[in-house]
## 1
Amino acid sequence: MSIRERLSGNEAVAHAMRQINPGVFAAFPITPSTEIPQYFAQYVADGAVDTEYVTVESEHSSMSTCIGAQAAGVRAVTATSSAGMAFMYEMLYVAASSRLPITLACVNRALTGPININNDHSDSMGARDSGWLQLYAENGQEAYDNFLQAMRIAETADVRLPIMICQDGFITSHAVENILLEEDAAVKAFVGDYTPRHTLLQGSAMAVGPYDTVAFCMEHKVQQAEAMKNAKRAILNVSADFEKTFGRKYGFFEAYRMEDAEVALVLIGSTAGTAKACVEGLREKGVKAGLIKLRVFRPFPAKELAAALSHVKAVAVMDKSEGNNGCGGPLYAETAAACYDLAHRPKMIDVVYGVAGRDCEVGDIERVYRHLLRIAETGEVGEKYIHMGVRTSEQEVL
Amino acid sequence: MTRKAKDITEQTPWQELTPGGEIYEGGTSMLVNTGEWRSDVVIWVRDKCKQCLLCAPFCPDSSIPVKDGKRDEFDLDHCKGCGICFKVCPFEAIRFEKEVK
């Protein structure tokens, strides 16, 4: 039986970690993820877990500790945000290339600079090419559910890649919402034991992460690329088993009122709740509005996303991080590339929004849909790279 | 894949390499010639050597084999030419000079 509770997103993830009882937890505090190691420290102090809790001196060290622990043969977890993730950058790549299925709770926060503590996706988007799996949540429930699924996905034999479970800083991490928790025994049974084939502490001598010469390094990068492809199947399998066990359904993305949608948004995270309210309002007025909330960004479900958008007239991809490439954000770039092979591509624009905690309300989302309706009607796309909610002395596009 | 290091060559396809280049045994650097980028080479002068064995523990690459209490010829497949043994030898029994290949 599920348990009805009221928890913040950080509490929910810390609760999941306690239920999983990992071998090692290594973290350095950084807003807004600090509460996760804080709550977990209490579990350690209370004897609620057997975890070795390592208080490191930096995020470079927390990820290094996780790498060593996971290679030694136990589950290693950490939590971080923003500059903390940037500080573990080198080791993020080492974790992935060493094929160690470490779990990282990422509480998304704007990456400095200018220094800012509020939510956007620039921290984990910056790590999008690091070889980590990335799952994003709309709310605390999804953050909890994703965390329960994380290890089984990451540890799948033909995957063996580290995984980030992302949630929006403050909006999700600190807001207390109703949540369904699962019983400890049911969670333990679902997650199962970690049984790697080779570890530093079992059997014969072993080396992890050796220097790779020209003759071998590209082959190992191809192994990683293939593992990322294999992860799609693993995610669907684990999600299906999760639905069977706990009754909540997950896939690569949630297609909300997309069946007959003529205009649609593609976005990630907590803004989905705001956008759903907007879609409902527009639907009452007869507007065929739809929404795709991406759950899985790595691996990128290009084929499935393109299929879901193939019948739409105009799409706005909502990027909650700046691309700094002069033509759009990362979600836009990948969504546009995914749709390139469609016989009839939807018109597509990029709306950069919510950067560094800039608020995004139902009315803002409605302006985007109204803009898409104009594009669908006239066939004129106009400016494709738009910043929403910014003060400007020029005529606003939206 | 749990291949031994000796069974992995520059012809092995990616599907048959170990994940992430993991190595499942010790001492595998013996299989690889890592001394080929040396620029200076050490030369053992046998008639000056007193077998004091000061050189062997100083060698960072275990390239001075010791057997039955006596050192033997340098392992030049693994010596990087750092010259530490030349520096510590009290008897000028090791020369250190430009390597001619």
## 2
Amino acid sequence: MRGSSQDSTSHPVLTFWVVAGWVGYCLLPWYGVEDGLWSFQWLFDGYPFDSDYAPALFLIMQGEKLWLAPLLIPLILPLLVLRKVKSDPLYARMLVLAGALGFGWLIIQGFSIGIRGFNYDWMKAVFGDLGDRQFGMGYGAMLVASAFLFLLTQGIAARGAVNGDVFVVSAIGGVITIVTAFVFFPIAKMLFAAFVTEDGSYSVGVFVSKFFDDRLWGLGCLSGGRCGAAWNSLFLAICVGFITTVLGLAFALAVTRSGFRYKKAMRALTVLPIITPPFVIGLALILLFGLSGTVTVFIADLFGVQPTRWLYGMPGVLIAQTLAFTPIAFLVLIGVVEGVSPSMEEASQTLRANRWQTFRTVSLPLMRPGLANAFLLGFIESMADFGNPLVLGGNFDVLSTEIFFAIVGAQYDQSRAAVLAMVLLFFTLSAFYAQRVWLGKKSYTTVSGKGDAGVHPLMPKGLSIPVLVIAIGWAFFTAVVYCMIIYGSVVELWGVNNSLTFKHYVTAFSVRFEEEGIRWTGAAWDSFWTTITIAAIAAPLTAAVGLVTAYLLTRQSFAGKNAFEFGTMLSFAIPGTVIGVSYILAFNVPPIEITGTGIILVVSFIFRNMPVGVRAGIASMSQLDKSLDESSLTLGANSWQTFRRVILPLLRPAILAALVYSFVRAMTAISAVIFLVSAEYDMATSYIIGRVENNDYGLAIAYSTTLIFVMLSVVGLLQFLVGRVQIGRRTQIGTGRST
Amino acid sequence: MSAPKIGSKAAPVRFDGVSKVFGKDVVAVDNIDLHVGAGKLVTLLGPSGCGKTTTLRMIAGLEMASSGRILIGDQDVTKLPATDRDVSMVFQSYALFPHMSVLENVMYGLTFSGFKKDEARARALHGLDLVGLKGFDARLPSELSGGQQQRVAVARALVLEPQVLLFDEPLSNLDAKLRRQVREDIRAIQQDLGLTVVYVTHDQEEALAVSDEIVVMRNASIAQIGTPRALYDEPADTFVADFIGEANLITCEITEINGDQATISIEGFTHTLPSRGLPIGPATLAVRPSRIVIANGPGIPARIAKATYVGVRMEYTLEGGFGQVFAVQDNVDEPLEVGSDIHMSFAAKGPVLLPE
């Protein structure tokens, strides 16, 4: 029974990973299989001897890829300590040695030997020409790498790190490894790409010349010409951040501090950015204000003026982004406005301040950090936005689209894309850093948990009228824009032939029932199913990584925790276009060679959306008292069992929310996706962008409308399910809203 | 199936020079030695921040000792995490799992101890029976009162038959009346089953009532260990004397040592009591409020500064050349007037000498 595991010589977890290591080395194909592992085609194509499919063991037995042979040593080492007790110092030392050796060697050989033999000239000089090469790692290599990683973490745990807790040490090791591999490594690779000349050598001059390019920093617009993309982006982002904050505050005040009757409907606004693909607003604006837009034509007829293309450029992008990101500021500011303790305001009123003085001297200053936070969020979102500038930008260049054209267009200039990405990353990371370091310590609006029985006073009259006018006006505008989307999807050809038709839906989503079953004949089905599949695979993985990370951050203390937290939240501040560029630069060559596969899409979604899961997890986990974990531990459950049987069940609402949000975000993402899609794996959003570029607006809008309704039903289902997950009467467990 | 009995595998606990340092230089527990005998109820008592809860959590394995050795039974558990120790704990907040029924809560630990489901269930039901919660097994914790939740937490810890059972201020969330009853229940179960129990509290009355032995802690180290009686009657120093039973501390002069008896003098008044090895010279006299005699006969001149009627007795604050003392008198029918001059002396038994 209990207390016996101390002397036990059976280590089920260790045995599992040792066996996994050997299976990966001896049975699974070592390198990536072209048709995918799960087709099992390789089983009949000469496995295990054909060098494309052979496991490592068969490769070295045939005298090929001999650099894989040293891996046998760290695979054998742990066998020696399988019968040792955990407290034996040899046990820990051997596992650390085996894990570090194996993992280190895998990395060294992976980066040294690529598709052209040795990757570095000095190695050729020292060792001579290799005369062999290798491709990207496959499942065999991946399994062996995981085995070494977890041998290492078990060794570290046995040495007493984190109270010798294998699960926690392994989780930390696992998260660090994948975040390094899929966030830091590609970014680093991209930074290096900025210094690469056309013939492949490194030069600072390249960087300097691309960095000080006039297209980036030019100030021509001050004298009637065009400005550089960096200035455009910065100016746009500041405007968007400011306007969305003001509008968001107006909405938040209208909802929490006015007698306005339709508050519920206004709150529904917050769900819009979640379910709307980013460029759809841009499309709707074209229908309204474009050259043949409803409003444009109306005004032109009324005043007899010539319609202009004013929308295409800074004004259009600004309006579209403001529409798209105001709900985000609203969501943040509701929390801030409600978080101001009513008793502070009541105290102020009892001290003879009137409502306006209270608002100006107490409420508003208390909200100031929250306002700054909303501004920075709007700033980051605008910087990172790709869809709206692409649709509406015209000649107004911004960084995110410039990156895209640098790498996809005729220029194909990797180092220019890398330089642009660095500038963009600099802006967003500065904002992210400011948000965390400067604002992190300044929040006045913490809910203490003590009952705060007051009510917020209403806004003073002089304030409430303009606030309500702004909020209702903007809400109305938003509603019109969304109506245009639905209406636009059933119009034959906008501005030319305004008859109603379902033609676009038929083109996109027709099905034919035949004897063999349903045939998906519509043009959109391929990308639709791919999107659903990829999003469905990515969602549980995202939620899992996010929640484990949240568990580590809230429940465990270990050295370097702050850096760990910063690293995991960092991917939030990395714009999708930067992720996209860095992924194609990093992952189209061994050792991780996954461009053109569905895997790279899944991976990019996991790390783009991980912060959502982490935040949802942290929010609800910090409401669970720590003594629950501790009592479970003293009752004999280990930390993994505690996580599974106490924490996870209590977090069900948060898990559900994380699942749905990562699913929905994966469906609406465009900026990273557009770099990573391939003919085989096309996503809905990139397909729609393709239609837009061909001026096929009808189909694009019909498809977008369909996506909005699909996601609306998914989110609705979530609300329904979360409402039903209720635990106990007196417990207070958050619904895990990701705010 | 015959009802399983909850037995005891009570084991002693031993601390050898154990320290706990948080961060770089916050010393929570400073080099303590401690022995808790098998089957004994030992209380860790002290003001908040004295390290008593940290000590308890080190026995549980929720904190790891920075140095020193911890033994449970004859096994060295210093580096063993909580999961692998045969110790259960009752938390101040009870920490019942809100998503499990009462029965599932009590069965929780049993399922990790290798019991078959039927056996675990039978044991859990028996445990609930023992704490007087028969028939509550299907409820959720949120459907119980505070006292009932508390008893579920006790049952959950008991059914594992741990070598050591830990209580972290278990009564602090209960009202005064319930507190007395639950503390008697805990003591009765502990004695019936012969459990080793370590109990943390900051309430000295609670500690005196339940303990076989009390460990008084101060500033991360142990001030004194002893039975309730020994601590009360023979405190080792002024801190313990003051913390347990609010002793009045009066400066005095030892004028004469005669065998193991000393004669002391305060403002000319003399009193004879055990010397406890102190030499002639200045010392401190500790006198419990109830051992102060107010009389008109020989004594130290004093004046009544305050008089409070609390029903069962009178409480007085006396002032004089020695400072202020607090005294209680059972005579409530003829209370003394504030401002009246009296003479104060001490009961023959009770006052103790402490080093200055």
